[in-house]
Amino acid sequence: MWAKIKRASVENELLYLFLHSPVAMVATLIAVLCIAGALLAPWLAPSNPYDLASFDLMDSMVPPAWADNGDERFALGTDDQGRDLLSAILYGTRLSLMVGVFSVAFAAVLGVSIGLMAGYIGGRFDTIMMRIADIQLSLPAILTALLIDGVARGILPQQRHDELMLIVLTVAIGLSLWVNFARTARASTFVERNKEYVQAAEIMGMHPLRIMLVQILPNIMGPILVILTVDLAVAILLEATLSYLGVGVPPNQPSLGTLIRIGTEYLFSGDWWIVLFPSATLITLIISVNVLGDFLRDALNPRLR
Amino acid sequence: MLTFIARRLFQSLFVMLAVSLLAFTLFRFVGDPVAQMVGQETSIEDRERIREELGLNDPVHEQFFRFSKNLVTANFGYSYRTRQPIGEMILSRLPATLELGFFSLIISLLVGIPAGVYTAIKTGFLSTTLLITTLVGISIPTFVIGIALIYVFGVQLNVLPVFGRGETVQLGWWKTNYLTVDGWRSLILPAVTLGIYQLTLTMRLVRSEMQDVIKTDYIKFAMARGINYRSVYLHHAFRNTLVPVITIVGLQFGGIIAFSIVTESVFQWPGMGLLFLDSIRYVDIPVMSVYLVLIAFIFVLINLLVDILYFVIDPRVRDRRQGA
Amino acid sequence: MNQPLLNITNLTVKFPTRFGEFTAIDDVSLTIQPGEIHGLVGESGAGKSTIGAAIIGLLQSPGYIANGHVQLMDVDLRKLSPADYHRLRGNRISMIFQDPQTSLNPLLTIADQLVETIQQHTPMSDSDARDHAIQLLDETGIPNPACRIDSYPHQFSGGMRQRVVIALALCTNPELIIADEPTTALDVAVQKQILQLIQQLASQRKVGFLLITHDIGVIAEITHRVTVLRNGRVMEAGETAQVLGAPTHEYTQALMAAVPRLNTKLDRFHNIVKDDPSAEEEDEWDVPGASAQFASDWLLGKRNTESKTDVPSTHPILEVNNLDVIFYSNQPSWFRKRTGFQALNNISFKAEQGKTLGVVGESGSGKSTLAKAIVGLVDPATGTLSFDGEALPPGSKRSRQHPSRRRIQMVFQDPYSSLNNRRSVEAILTEPLKLYGHGGRNLDSRKLAASVLDLVEMPQRSLTKYPHQFSGGQRQRIAVARALIAQPEFLICDEPTSALDVSIQAQMLNLLKDLQTEFGLSILFISHNLAVVRQMADTVVVLKDGEMVEYAESETFFTSPQAEYSQLLLNETPSLALLE
What we know:
By secondary structure, chain B is mainly α. In chain B, 78% of the residues lie in helices and 2% in strands. Chain C is an alpha/beta fold. Chain C has helices at 48-56, 82-88, 110-121, 126-139, 145-148, 158-170, 188-205, 216-222, 240-245, 250-258, 292-306, 367-375, 404-407, 425-436, 445-455, 472-484, 502-519, 530-536, 554-559, 564-572; strands at 6-17, 20-32, 37-41, 64-72, 75-76, 93-96, 176-180, 208-213, 225-230, 233-239, 318-328, 340-351, 356-360, 382-387, 390-392, 408-411, 490-494, 522-527, 539-544, 547-553. The longest helix of chain C has 18 residues, at 188-205. The chains are: A mainly alpha, B mainly alpha, C alpha/beta.
């Protein structure tokens, strides 16, 4: 099988570059491990960190198992409520990834559709959409997300808001990221639309929707894939930041950002583990996604070769 | 040049109008302003009287007009939460944010641009190290950097203050950090925290733009004419990367404002970001909408500045705009 | 013979790739005397530019010189340190690039660029350097140089910019100038002037030129000696008149046979270069029952059922009357009135059934706009079109189901962009069948696609491949196949060969002629190359700045052009006449 991959890789540029980039392969491995850990959290985690009844305040602030006063039940120690940190991290990663993936998917679908149409149809629609994009671009993602979250708090009653918080968060992050996709898709569509294969399709009388989806879309997937990866890292980062600021995920479902916020309060008294382990997990996850994004960008950018 | 600026001003006016419409919608329709102002026990008649006094029963376009007029005359209204005039609240916090933001922008440009040029034209150990550092740099959330700095310099080494502005000097209404030693010491950690992310962004951007320019024919031609490398890179190539870089630096200021929210929260820096964060937590809609308008105003100013810089740098822009 | 200016012996350049080392230049030797213009000619992939880069020491990494000598007068270039080499560049060897649009720094004035280059190599005061720069601009034919020197590059036209580029290359009085396709991006009139300038510099200043080009006409016009390259090897070298006029090498003979002549019309090109046989697929792969005959029958069958009588219709297949096309600036503005650019002005002509109408003109003359207006991509301002006796709805008024969408087909200029890289050849070829609802369910579309490939002389197994796996010429054949499968009556070819090498161009022209004879296709053939149009057209339309300056029978046009502009155009096209 390896031989088969080797042979295919000589023909497939991307696969070849990937197999010759140890950094990209390691990053993929780490990302896959993180995703697997997140998906399998309910089975891997020693306890359920969302179930308040399952932990005991008597177990609060236990240091990691190998440290003095450590408890072997809690490999990475516990937090201020006696929650097992390892379980909390696994579930937190799951939450971070979920919000990240869904918000980027939302942003991608919205942004690519708008960009594709703006680039293909042009004219007024293009001018208006790009004006909106410009304005939104000057409002940084975190500000947009905060604003949307604030508005949601104003509209929804407190209780409903806590229930819908994850959705609000996903939409807020998604809405703050669509511009990147729209601009990239538009720019690439613009290039493609002037190519002769599109003109050929138009002359034949092909339906514009089919031209956009069947002819153009596959040709602009490269740059979109890059944005997809880069923005996944941004989305995870945004979720963590919002949760750290206390306006993100609901407090009874801690994500990595929430754990870091809780941990900061105890940092000064020397209880370092609550900050350290979630931070390390978060950074590892984001770095691996960013490394992949960088690899894709270089590999798919013909100008750099 | 003058007509060009006039045209841009006109466009900016439209943007501001759109933003204030957004802010007005936020203010008027998100939640009930009256319910926020009065207590539970206020009677329906009283509420209705307040509505009338506030003009909330007037036609919407009149309300919007009044809202915009108030904005222009810097009459921002009162906060639901603190009952203070918003104008005063913002004015007392603006200097803190601007001083922090300005200092970190300087850090990010002074380090980011030379490092970007260097990594674009040189390969080797230093270049690779810098690149790996930037990758890590954009991957670590700002608040984690802040916490790490606090832990190392504040808790372990105990050499720098870790929260608040420290000692400041009052210049009229402007409270400055720049005139005292303690003020500078307090500024260092938050500014570095805020600057690192922007620095890595600047560096990566300058690098990729520079790499693109180096591949162009006119750089190859300059090489083929034997122009010395220093001039080719700094005089010919760097100048051509300036146009896109300026655009991004303009946008970066936005990033700085945004991330100052996080930094101010980590270091309890009493700036506008902290104020905004509180207004979100407590659904203090008037403060949110004024903050939005103010930020938009700053962006419009910066964009105007960026456009004028294009004008100065790129002769093609000059000719096109003058011809038009 | 005294010492040559440049002496290259046994030069070999290699590029390491992941498929192993690729030898770009293989054992090439050539010499250039002072004042000599030495042509380096070859088709794409021959390694012409690589030789130029190797001489000036700017080979693109990871390429390297594996073997051989490069000697400039007394200096062995391969022994120079990188710093010495850099000092020598500009000083003793200079270079001119292909595209004047991109080879000048857009943010610096001409004066900045000239003065810097002059001072780089000769210590001189600013005002002296400036005087020298003005003098150079004057020499290269820039009018009013003392004033123009402070302009920016974008304020010059293409031809003027190339003169500035030449002035920059001349700054320090180099002995050798490498000119890499210096006129390819220019129109013929400007090309002629630039070539004359190069000739003048060579004879007056005794500068040696290495003129790299794919254009045999340019070579024939100004070079003293020529080296013919193919796949990195020298095929033939010697005096230009001798090499081109009486070639001895098989390849050169074939190459010369493929060059279209301005003064004669050939029915077919003979003796064309064959592709490398080693590149062909060994294993056979056929769709059962598919053959060129099947495709041919299918195409003819359609025709027979449609035209009920054998009498050819008397009316022209396409009629264009008083066509105007105006383009408005893209961005509507509240501040300015929309200003239009008249791309086509009052164009009228008729295209006869089964004949070829040639449309010629320089860039910006409106040739492509004309094609786009006919196929409905562009909305004309006024004027009418009629096709086969019926009015053809213009531009956006033409419905997507309009029958003309099938009956008129188009072959584009750039085979690299006219096929969608993400779709297999089979998907590309069967798309029109689905779209036009050809043949219903009974039709085996795969068999038909394979047959049409056979008809355009492509292997049937191409069906399973993707466009990027083919060369430019092969892609263009696929594009023709895509047009044919729609069973068209009228074929518009917009510069179908300008992206192709001459030998491939000859094959393509042969193919088009064969298809026309067999299926009675009417063709609208657009080209900037008069010699090519001469080979194809029965009637000629000449466009200049959107206006029709001449409309005549092809033979009349080429032997006695009426309009002044046509005469100019014919005169300025480099011809091979002097060789014959």
